[in-house]
């Protein structure tokens, strides 16, 4: 594993490894036999899911889907060992500077805040309803740990998208400054930096696309499941308020994640379009043929290689994705309510 990382993510990855997701960390490389014991934390996950199945047989199918998502992330981490993540986070003086590296520390803090925020929200629901009901809501506590497990399964995706966002924004800001003084613009150097950025990001696309595809599919199933829980619960005379609160929070959780990733790629796309517009303006006012040739080449390269991201090479990950995702979920919720009214005695 590379040691000269642009951001200290080793601590986060060690915590993630405790949830059963194997990673090529120094301790694991030193004691390679630990890899064969990495199934033990997964037994805890299986036990928690088993409790859900026993307690709620009518929702067992959804629980199996949740288990499939977890083992999808586990298999991905076990076979990739997160090598692509460490390679992407390796310091590269061609695109990284000491000033930028200082700003990258916000990635770790942001991820810690994200996990802590939702963990605190789930724990608050557990504590409040346990106190109000004068009994321990074990089902709610199980949800807390299952969500934490799942969040840590997605950590590499968050980290890669966050660093891609930071590097891209820094590159575009520098390009804006360079374009303000066309005489000093070194097109060859700009093309080289952009190509390096694209190459580094492209190397991560396989595992990242796989993880985001898992999230997109199972995220939809998760929202359907929680909509089903809420519909059934609202129709009952004695409502299970902890379940309602957890279901609502899980829906918010899934939607928030999709919006965050889509917003990052949408922002990068907007910055790229602004750069292309600036280049087109400079191209129109360029006095020398050599300068026109360089700017045309740069514009063509940015157009052909936009560093865009799509799910299964079909669905572009921009702000249209979460909005469409949310629309589909709302339509599905309406269908669930109508079916429940038709089928209920």
> What is the topology, as strand order, of the major beta sheet?
1-2
Number of folding domains? 1
Briefly note the structural class of the backbone: mainly alpha
Oligomer: single chain
Report the biggest beta sheet as strand number plus sense, adding barrel if it closes.
2 strands, antiparallel
User: Helical region count?
Assistant: 13
Strand content: under 5%
Protein name: Gustatory receptor
Keywords: Membrane, Transmembrane, Transmembrane helix
Transmembrane segments: 5-25, 31-48, 111-136, 148-166, 323-343
Question: What do you see in this structure?
Answer:
A hairpin with a 3-residue loop joins strand 1 and strand 2 (about 315). Helix 4 (about 60-80) runs antiparallel to helix 10. The chain has a two-stranded antiparallel ribbon. It starts with 9 loop residues before the first helix and ends with a helix. The chain has about 350 residues and is mostly helical. The chain is about 75% helix and about 0% strand. It has one domain (about 10-345).
Task: Give a nutshell description of this structure.
The chain crosses the membrane at residues 5-25, 31-48, 111-136, 148-166, 323-343. With 345 residues, the protein is mainly alpha-helical. The chain has 13 helices and two strands.
List keywords for this structure.
mainly alpha; 13 helices; two-stranded antiparallel sheet; globular; about 350 residues; about 75% helix
């Amino acid at each position: 594993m590379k040691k000269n990382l642009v951001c200290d993510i080793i601590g986060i990855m060690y915590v993630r490894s405790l949830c059963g997701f194997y990673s090529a960390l120094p301790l694991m490389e030193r004691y390679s036999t630990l890899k064969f014991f990495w199934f033990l934390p997964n037994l805890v996950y299986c036990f928690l899911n088993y409790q859900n199945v026993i307690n709620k047989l009518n929702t067992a199918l959804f629980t199996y889907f949740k288990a499939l998502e977890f083992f999808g992330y586990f298999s991905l981490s076990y076979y990739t060992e997160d090598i692509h993540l460490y390679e992407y986070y390796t310091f590269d003086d061609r695109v990284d500077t000491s000033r930028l590296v200082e700003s990258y520390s916000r990635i770790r803090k942001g991820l810690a805040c994200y996990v802590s925020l939702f963990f605190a929200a789930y724990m608050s629901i557990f504590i409040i309803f346990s106190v109000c009901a004068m009994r321990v809501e074990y089902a709610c506590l199980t949800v807390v740990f299952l969500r934490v497990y799942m969040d840590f399964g997605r950590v590499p995706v968050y980290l890669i998208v966050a660093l891609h966002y930071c590097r891209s924004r820094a590159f575009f800001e520098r390009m804006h400054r360079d374009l303000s003084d066309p005489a000093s613009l070194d097109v060859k150097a700009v093309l080289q930096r952009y190509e390096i950025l694209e190459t580094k990001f492209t190397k991560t696309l396989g595992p990242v696309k796989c993880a985001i595809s898992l999230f997109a599919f199972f995220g939809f199933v998760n929202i359907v499941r929680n909509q089903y829980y809420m519909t059934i619960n609202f129709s009952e005379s004695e409502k299970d308020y902890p379940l309602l609160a957890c279901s609502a929070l899980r829906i918010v959780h899934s939607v928030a994640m999709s919006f965050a990733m889509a917003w990052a790629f949408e922002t990068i796309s907007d910055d790229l379009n602004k750069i292309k517009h600036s280049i087109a303006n400079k191209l129109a006012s360029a006095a020398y043929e050599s300068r026109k040739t360089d700017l045309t080449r740069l514009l063509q390269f940015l157009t052909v290689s936009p560093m865009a991201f799509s799910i299964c090479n079909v669905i572009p990950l921009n702000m249209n994705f979460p909005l469409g995702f949310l629309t589909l979920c709302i339509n599905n919720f309406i269908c669930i309510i109508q079916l429940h009214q038709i089928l209920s005695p």
